[in-house]
Amino acid sequence: MAKQWKDLIDRLPKKRRERIRRGADNMLREITLQELRKVFELTQQDMAAALDVNQAAISKMEGQSDMHISTLRKLLETMGAKLKLVAQFSDGEVIIEMPGERRKGA
Fold first, then answer.
1. Could you tell me the domains of the chain?
2. How high is the pLDDT of residue 51?
C-alpha cells in the first residue's frame, strides 16, 4: 500500500520539514519514475498488480523516454499522486486541463 507523502513529512520536526520543503522542488524535478516508486516503497510487482499488467510492462514503462499522458497518469495515481500538466511560456505558465478533469468552480 502506498504511503501518503504528507503523513511521512508531518512526522518530522518542524525545522527539518521546512528544509525538506525548500529542497523538494529541485529534487523532484530530477527524479525518475523508478526512483519515485522506490521512495514510496513499491515494487514493480506492486505496481503491476494495481495496474493489472505484468511486471515486465512496468519495467518497460519506467525505462521509456516517451509515453502516453494517460499511462503516466495511471502510474502516478498508483503512487497516490495526481498528474498536473503545465506549459511554460516566456511570460508565464498555463495549466493544461485534461479531458474529463475539470477544476473546482469551473
1. 5-79 (1.10.260)
2. 93
